[in-house]
Amino acid sequence: MCLAIPALITSINDKEAEVEIGGISRRISLWLTPEARVGDYVLVHTGYAINVLDQEQAEETLGILREIAEGVGD
Amino acid sequence: MKYITEFRSSELGEGLISRIQQCSQKPARFMEFCGGHTVTIFRYGIRQLLPPTIEMVSGPGCPICVTANADLDKAIALSQIPGVIITTFGDMLKVPGSRSSLEKAKAEGAEVQTVYSTMDALDIAEANRDRSVVFLGIGFETTAPTIAASILQAEERGIKNYHVLSLHKVCPPVIKALLDSGEVELQGLVCPGHVSAIIGSHPWEFIAQEYGIPCVISGFEPLDVLQCVEMLTEQVEKGESRVEIAYKRGVRPEGNIMALKLMERVFEPSPALWRGMGEIAGSGLKIRSEYQRFDAEADFDIKTEPAVEHKGCICGDILRGVKTPADCKLFGKACTPENPVGPCMVSTEGSCSAYYLYGDGHGG
Amino acid sequence: MVDKILLAHGSGGKLAHDLVEKSFVKALANPLLDKLDDSAVFDVSGKLAFTTDSYVVSPIFFPGGDIGKLAVCGTVNDLATSGAKPLYLSLSFIIEEGLSFRELEKIVASVREACGEARVKIVTGDTKVVTRGSADKLFINTAGVGVIPEGIDISGSNAKPRDKVILNGAIGDHGIAVVSKREGLSFATKLKSDCAPLGGLVADMLKASPSIHALRDPTRGGLASSLNELAQQSSVSIRIEEKKIPVREEVLAACEMLGFDPLYVANEGKMIAIVPPEDADKVLKTIRQNKYGRDAAIIGEVTGEKVGRVVMKTVLGSHRIVDMLTGDLLPRIC
């Protein structure tokens, strides 16, 4: 359940934001993520940001997956 | 697309698959609870890539599939009240209730509008002040806070003609009920990533501690699911049972405090009817009395006839992971995506639909 | 000054006659249409292809086109899938009373432009006006006639094992462009419908390989549904590779957001070609030289196992069945 996709906040107006993903953009609500800022990636579910995506953690996870891919050959 | 494409890398996928194959020795049955995970597993053929020691079974995590006929009948009855515009997520349109569906009601003249967001429903309400706009609130803890926010926005904007039929459910009680039934033996649980983004990791602790079942909170890209399976496998091999977050970029252990606050403000726990599982205490969300004026159950006289379940439909058993679609006599014959008998065939996340569309009608 | 279409405009009287003459015939002028006979009479020799279609798209204006352009291109493309050179079209309007003249004239101008590019003529037509609520602004019905060159035998039942499957470009543009304007689902995008007349492209392809076995334009139901139709008609299996199918990032993003699978999203400027393996590279090169084929790719091949089915190799290397679209493409939250 719960289709939510990472989208980049390009502008904020009060409790709403304009987000961009893959070249398309839409207005969404920040009611659930008042801490979000322009430049953040948020997970968007039915037009609401449900969380601010942790970009550092994303990179860390990819790093772990790369290590696994490299390590497996041994 | 950033943070999506990277998690579909075939190279990194190969690495995870090899690691799982190397690691997995003990037979293990993992349940993916969330319909979104079911879709990823089928869409990327993940079952085929796992070693024979690992069996994946789908659980009752498709909010459409678990909506009982009695509740669907309420939604259809509301659509037939003059002056009502039903706004709904697309998922609900074709699900058959006892006698009809929203799609059929629409063909017979009911006004049913598909929307992407409650923001759109609020706009429709504002543009149609002389009508009553009812939003069909389905979904688990990922969606419930957005519905709560929509009610608070309606209050703020003075929108008096917006109502919600709350059919929301929450996850932990149903998992407990499933585990207590003893019908399915599990060695691991793939926990829903976006529900956890809201509720955090703590609500899953009881599964690891009281039932000894490893839990890993997973994202929805194919690499996320593979990583989750890898982490579950490691726990199984080491004889551990902990709750881990694989989906670290999307889930914090404490969840989303603001979302939980909004949910709590607007909703209170209530019993809810689950298809195939009957009524489960505390598993539903009811709109609090302070917001009664937005509650469709309170505002409308919803008349329904007694709910009827379809003979032969074993959606309930399938949702509990006890049977597979292949076990159903109706599957692929009387029950197909064009003519669905039960919701598992309608919802794109339903097991039956996934088996039918992706798996040659006989399983992925 | 009447600025809206009224019921009287469809009643056959003076208003109706004026509408046809001033708004339609003047814009679409050609010797056959100008005669204003009840049927167009013409000489054609050879094997004929004949098609009909109705257009009910909503909204009637969308990024990259409108219902008029769609009607011409859709009809032309249907004829092209038989290998025919499209020649003459009929054009029938069912107009909801209240449609503005301005909008109708814009649509007729699109029809003229599309006919010019496709080198076809509207030779006969009809106009009806219905009461408010009986049609969604405008419905269009067309029929089309074309001639199939000698020696060309193209049919959906001709696909053979080892044939290559070629697609002329990225999928999903049209469906997503239209949905982006739909109330309740809208979002902003630079994406335009891929609506285009492909008669010229097909003529070039046939010059490169007169032995092309099958052609199909994947409209509603998307690439997946058309491939399934071909597999069933020819009693073969079609295997495609996910990573070879061209899709624009915006289409992927919109599909992610709304819960669509690009394989099922409508196209209006795409052509699937099933080509004998020895001609595949030549045909691909030819397609890429055409403005409607720059992103063309060989996306798969025809085999004999799992007859009637389409199987896709995913980016992870696994295989899954790709079924036909059932019902409507609906946005989902789960």
Portion in beta strands of chain A: 35-45%
Number of strands of chain B: 11
Give the biggest sheet of chain B: 5 strands, parallel
Identify the overall geometry of chain A.
elongated
N-to-C terminal Cα separation of chain A, in Å? 38 Å
Describe this protein with a few key phrases.
heterotrimer, B: 364 residues, alpha/beta, Rossmann fold, 2 domains, five-stranded parallel beta sheet, four-stranded parallel beta sheet, 16 helices, 11 strands, 38% helix, 16% strand, C: 334 residues, alpha+beta, 60s Ribosomal Protein L30, Chain: A, Phosphoribosyl-aminoimidazole Synthetase, Chain A, domain 2, seven-stranded mixed beta sheet, four-stranded mixed beta sheet, 30% helix
Describe the structure.
The complex is a heterotrimer of chains A (74), B (364) and C (334). Chain A has 74 residues and is of the alpha+beta class. Chain A has one domain: SH3 type barrels (Roll), CATH 2.30.30. Helix content of chain A is 23%, strand content 42%. Chain A contains 1 helix and 5 strands, in the order E-E-E-E-E-H. A 5-stranded antiparallel β-sheet of chain A has the order 3-2-1-4-5, with no helix packed on it. In chain A, a hairpin with a 2-residue loop joins strand 2 and strand 3 (24-29). The mean pLDDT of chain A is 93. Chain B has 364 residues and is an alpha/beta fold. Chain B has 2 domains: 27-312, Rossmann fold (3-Layer(aba) Sandwich); 315-356, no CATH class. Chain B is built from 16 helices and 11 strands. In chain B, strand 8, helix 11 (222-238) and strand 9 form a beta-alpha-beta unit. Chain C has 334 residues and is an alpha+beta fold. Chain C folds into 2 domains: 7-148, PurM-like, N-terminal domain (60s Ribosomal Protein L30, Chain: A), CATH 3.30.1330.10; 164-321, PurM-like C-terminal domain (Phosphoribosyl-aminoimidazole Synthetase, Chain A, domain 2), CATH 3.90.650.10. Chain C has helices at residues 14-28, 31-34, 67-80, 101-118, 173-179, 199-208, 222-234, 249-258, 280-288, and strands at 47-55, 61-62, 65-66, 85-96, 121-130, 138-148, 164-167, 214-216, 237-241, 272-275, 297-303, 310-313, 319-321. Chain C has a 7-stranded mixed β-sheet. Chain C has a 4-stranded mixed β-sheet with strand order 1-6-4-5. In chain C, helix 1 runs parallel beside helix 4 (101-118) and helix 3 runs parallel beside helix 4 (101-118). The longest helix of chain C is centred in the N-terminal third of the chain and has 18 residues, at 101-118. The mean pLDDT of chain C is 93. Chains in contact: A-B, A-C, B-C.
